[in-house]
């Protein structure tokens, strides 16, 4: 299996977490999203140009982070962490939380970032609206985590793979310490081996951006 990704892309980090949790072997293929040549090569392979993308010898291209994770979990059901719980009711809840995190948090964080970087024309009302939306969703997660160790129960699932990269990005700006359950969860997530592996890649890529060896994605 080959994984096309960028270490600073949250959707890529979501899949990396899942692959490390599953202890699945893969060939890493880093795509420099801001480098036109690297992007063109990737678009020849996958025209939408979005990462992450999994390429499997027999199955071909598998796009979309949640689908990639579901595919890996089915492919290696007995290996590593079970990311989609086998029980139907729990698996539906896992998929639901995953969808909500992608749509209501991860994508909103993108809008928030775009507003922030739009220095010439910051729309402060829109920025406040997005901030409020994010806090509202963090409160929703905090309430769930009052009774759950991980987001969907006692063990880590697909939904946690979606959430952890968002918390990593938003931990300072959105003052996670104000949310008791969420900050307990974030502390515990940071001790996870899979997270430590992803963190190493994030730090390495961020340093390369800072010293100018890697363009800003
Ligand atoms: N729904 C997709 C979202 C993927 C996505 O938006 N990836 C971003 C990076 S985090 C990307 O490739 N952006 C480049 C582009 O849109 O051209 C998934 O879950 O994999």
What does this entry look like structurally?
The protein has helices spanning 10-22, 36-45, 65-75, 88-117, 124-144, 158-170, 180-189, 193-210, and strands at 2-5, 27-30, 53-56, 60-63. The protein has 217 residues and is of the alpha+beta class. Helix 4 runs antiparallel to helix 5. The protein binds glutathione (GSH). Glutathione (GSH) binds next to helix 1.
Query: What is the general shape?
Result: globular
Terminal CA distance reads 24 Å
Mean model confidence by pLDDT: 93
Number of helices: 8
Sheet with the most strands? 4 strands, mixed
Structural class, judged by helices and strands? Answer: alpha+beta
List its salient traits:
217 residues, Glutaredoxin, Glutathione S-transferase Yfyf (Class Pi), Chain A, domain 2, four-stranded mixed sheet, binds glutathione
Offer a concise description of the structure.
The chain is of the alpha+beta class and 217 residues long.
Give the helix/strand layout:
Layout: E1 2-5, H1 10-22, E2 27-30, H2 36-45, E3 53-56, E4 60-63, H3 65-75, H4 88-117, H5 124-144, H6 158-170, H7 180-189, H8 193-210
Parallel strand pairs: 1-2
Antiparallel strand pairs: 1-3, 3-4
Helix pairs in contact: 1-3, 1-6, 1-8, 4-5, 4-6
The chain binds glutathione.
């Amino acid at each position: 299996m080959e994984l096309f990704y960028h270490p600073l892309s949250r959707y890529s980090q979501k899949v990396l977490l899942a692959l490390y949790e599953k202890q699945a072997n893969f060939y890493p293929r880093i795509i420099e999203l801001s480098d036109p040549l690297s992007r063109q090569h990737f678009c020849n392979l996958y025209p939408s140009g979005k990462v992450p993308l999994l390429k499997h010898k027999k199955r071909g291209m598998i796009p979309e982070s949640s689908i990639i994770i579901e595919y890996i979990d089915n492919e290696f059901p007995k290996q590593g962490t079970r990311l989609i719980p086998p029980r139907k009711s729990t698996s539906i809840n896992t998929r639901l939380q995953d969808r909500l995190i992608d749509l209501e948090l991860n994508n909103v964080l993108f809008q928030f970032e775009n507003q922030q970087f739009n220095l010439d024309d910051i729309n402060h009302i829109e920025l406040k609206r997005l901030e409020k939306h994010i806090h509202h969703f963090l409160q929703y997660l905090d309430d769930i985590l009052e009774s759950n160790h991980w987001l969907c129960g006692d063990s880590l699932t697909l939904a946690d793979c979606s959430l952890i990269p968002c918390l990593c990005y938003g931990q300072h700006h959105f003052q996670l310490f104000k949310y008791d359950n969420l900050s307990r969860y974030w502390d515990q997530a940071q001790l996870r081996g899979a997270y430590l592996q992803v963190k190493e890649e994030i730090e390495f890529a961020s340093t390369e951006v800072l010293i100018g060896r890697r363009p800003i994605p």
